[in-house]
Every structure is written in structure tokens, then in C-alpha cells.
Amino acid sequence: MKRYRAWIWAGVAMAAPAYSAVAGSSAVGFAVENGVDVSADAATVYRLLGQPARWWNGEHSYSGDAANLSLDPVAGGCFCEKVPGKDGKAGSVEHGRVIHAAPDRQLRLSGALGPLQAEAVTGTLTFDIAPAGKGSRVVMSYVVGGYMRFEAAKIAPVVDKVLAEQLQGLKRAAEAERP
């Protein structure tokens, strides 16, 4: 868990997405949005959303290994992580729950990611996928609201960078699948 907490507080080196922005913040929450053009069709992108082990950076997980991540892209499906334990006592984490699944168009989850899980907040993570040129455009937004023991305006840019890194991972995975 220490490793997972570190992701939000540490600086993040990454390739810049097509755009990345803190869309807004206030005393009670924030919204971030990232978008990329992907040289893969919407069906490929959507299918890969259900395989976070292929695109999520394991450094931003509780176990430190993306292979422990899973996401069932249906309403009620879990974005979960198995956390290997000592003496066979494994743990698990629910990062989010799917609340809207529209294959090849949109996937929406509800969940407070990372250290936000310890706060009294609700987060909504949305992936919008649309055809664009010879590929697709993916826009990821994350809206968080509720009580936090830190300033939303200070944490929002860091959350934005971490999520932008994950979106870049999705782009790389989708483009690696091209024939």
C-alpha cells in the first residue's frame, strides 16, 4: 500500500498525451480530462480497457504488479486487484465498479482511486471512445467530489498526470495490436 500511496505524491515521468488538463477544482473536488488519438479502432480500445494488466503501470497499484489487475467491462463489473500476501494470506482491492458499459463507445466506473480511497470522496472515471480518422479518439475524464483531508487544487494536477500516464499505456497497447 505504501507503493500505491506514493504514486499520487511523487512526480510522474511520462509522454504527454494529446491533451491533459485539470478541468476544474474547488474546495470539495476536482475534474481532470485527458485525450489521445489512437491508431486502432474503437473495438480494440474497448477490449483492452478490460485488460488493465496490459496498459496500467504497475507502479500505480497496491501490489506493484499490473498483472494483478482485472476489469470486467459490464455493469457491476469490478476493476480489482489481487494483492499477494505472506503465508498464503492474499488481499484484494476494488479500485472501481463499472456503472455504464457501452461496447466500443464508453466505459464508466465509480471509485476513488489510490490514496483517494482513504478519503470520503466519490470518483467517476469515464472513457469515451469515438472513431477519428483511421483510428479512434479516447477521452478519459475523472471527476472527484467529497471531503478530502488535503486541498483538491493541489492534488488534482498530480492525479491528472498519473491518469494521463495510464491513458498513454492504453494507447501503446492498442497500437501494438495493429496488423
Automatic annotation (TrEMBL):
Claim: Signal is one of the keywords in the record: yes
Transmembrane domains' residue ranges: none
Domain of life assignment: Bacteria
Keywords for the protein's UniProt record, in alphabetical order: Signal
Signal peptide: 1-23
The keyword Signal belongs to this UniProt entry's keyword annotation: yes
SUPFAM superfamilies: Bet v1-like (SSF55961)
Protein name in the entry: Polyketide cyclase/dehydrase
